[in-house]
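Session log. Operator J.P. requested a structure for one protein chain; no other inputs attached. Running the standard single-chain path with token output.
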Amino acid sequence: MAPIVLAKLEAQIRDSFSISRISLTGEMIPYRLAYHRIIFVSSGQGTFLIDDKEFILSGNQLFLISQGQVFCSHAQENIEGYEISFGDSFWERTPESANNCKAVLFNNASNNQCLPIQQNDSEDLLPLLKMLLEEYNSSPYINKLDALAAFLKIIMIKIANLNASLAKGFDNFEKQMYRKFLEAVSKDYFCRHEVSDYARQLNITPRRLSELCKRSSGKTAKDIINGQLIAEAKRHLQFSSIAVKEIAIRLSFPSPEQFSHFFKKNVQASPSDYRTYFIGISA
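Structure written below.
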């Protein structure tokens, strides 16, 4: 059997922000993101692997990848475009009114992982990316980071408005409550598994929380919590060599047996079988 391909941890970025032109060739080793990522692919052929999902590249595609996800690429033809990386500490520089953008786009990024965009939308987005890159590469000055954060806010609003279903995420009180729930889950899913814990934090009943989640996303609150747990478990099984017992501990399951039962119920395979499958296909 071939060894599991271990995911490297992404290196730290100064000021928790960067933007660059990308020119990808060949195959990249998987790495776990320490920062949120916006990747605009303007041209090229190949694949992106985000966690265990493969995306075929064809140009004019936008990828939203959250901190903690595992990412790698394989270029069959040179992949060109832009890449923005930012951390939560940098995002705090944006006005509070922009928090809706980050919540809708990144707190449940697996639902918005790849956004195909129209040519006219691409023509609107490219000048903003170019201006942000020029500002990033300019000489230092007072409040430069705040200016970069303002550019990022504009780009995030533009991205949300590319997709009508995402744009709908900015309106009423119920949507705001749903976004707060997503934000709480993205921070605490590894140690808080019960809907009642999040409902108490939001000062609503568990039933109401599940109902508003269902109306906002088509999924119950429990589905969303379990989805985060399963995604993280898959990353550990596919891209690390830590034991199943250790994964259970990291995800706050009372015992390895309960973790294995939970995983098998949701994935239709035991953790060991899931890992063995990926070892087999990398052989």
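Operator note: The first strand starts at residue 8 and ends at 9.
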